[in-house]
Amino acid sequence: MAEAVARANSNVALVKYWGKRNEALNLPYTGSISITLGGLTTTVRATTRDDLGGDQVILNGRPGIPPATARITAYLDLLRRVAARPTRLTVELESNFPVAAGLASSASTFAALAAAGSAALGIELTPAQLSILARRGSGSAARSIFGGFVEWLGGELGDGSDSYAIPIAAADHWDVGFAIAVTAEEPKPVGSGAGMAHSVKQSPFFPAWLEGQEQDLDAVRRGILARDLTVVGEAMEHNCLKMHAVALAARPSLLYWKPATLAVIARVQELRNECIEAYFTIDAGPQVKVLCPLAERDAVADALRRVPGVQRVLLSQPGGGVELVEPT
Ligand code: PMV
Question: Which of 4, 174, 219, 283 is 20 to 30 A from 12 (CA-CA)?
Fold first, then answer.
C-alpha cells in the first residue's frame, strides 16, 4: 500500500480555453492564461489497494457512485496505463468550494489527482509532464499545477506533448485579488466540455473567436508583467464576452448566465465609474469573478453582496501551485 496526498488550487482564466482540437487528449485550439486561486482548494488522498477488485472514490467524505465518479475512474485507468501497473486505488477528494458551478473545481480536482495518483503509483514526472497529465483529466487543470500567473501553451503537435502550462509570474508578483459573486449553487446544466464541443460545431462566431486569441494573450501577458490592471482587465472582459457570445450564437443557444450574473456585470461597470478599478470574467456557469487591486477587494466584495440575487461572495488572491503534503 502506498499513499500520497496532494493539494491544488482552482484557477480562473483571464484568456479562456474554449474549444478542443482533440477531445480525447483535451488539446485546445489556442493558448490560455489564468490566475491560480489561493484558498479555493481540492485535497486528494490516493492509496494503492491490491486488496480491492475495483477503485473506490470518496467525494467530500461520502462514497461516490457512478455516474458522478465515472470521470475519476476513467482517469485512474489512464494513470494505471502510464504507470504500467494494474493496481486499484482508493481516492478521497475534498473541495472547500462549490463544485460544478463554474468555479473550475475540475481544475483543482485533476491537478491534485494527477499529483497524488502519480506519486502513489511511483510515476516520476517533470512539472511540464505533470501539467500534461493533469490536462488529460480536465484542460484547465494543466494550469493549476503552477501558482500565480500561468499560461497554458496550446501547442501544435497531435500527441499533445507541447501542450502544457508554464508560469508567467509567481503569486507574489502582483497585489491583485478576486471577489467571486456566487449567483447559483446548483450544478450547471451544460458542462464546459459539452459547451465547447457545441460551440465549435454550431456557432458561426467560433472562427472569429480563434482569430482574436493571440492578440488577447499578448495583451494579458504584457499587462501581467507590467502589473497594469487596465490592460489586463480590459482584455480579460473582452475575452470573456467573446467566449459567451460564441456560446450564445450557437444553435441551440447556450446561455450560462442568470439574471444576477448580469446585475453583477452592471455593478462592476458602476464601480469603475466610482473609481474602483474592477473587472469581471465568467466561465461556463453563472458566477462572476471580479479582479481588482487587493487593497480594494473588501470594498468590491461589499458592493457585490448588495446586488440582488448574489448568494455569497468568496474571496481569493493569487495562490500557489500543486503540492504534495505529508499523509496524516
Ligand atoms: O477544464 P474544463 O474542461 O472544465 O474547461 C474550462 C473552461 C473554462 O473554464 C470556461 C475556461 C478556462 O479556460 O478555464
Answer: 4
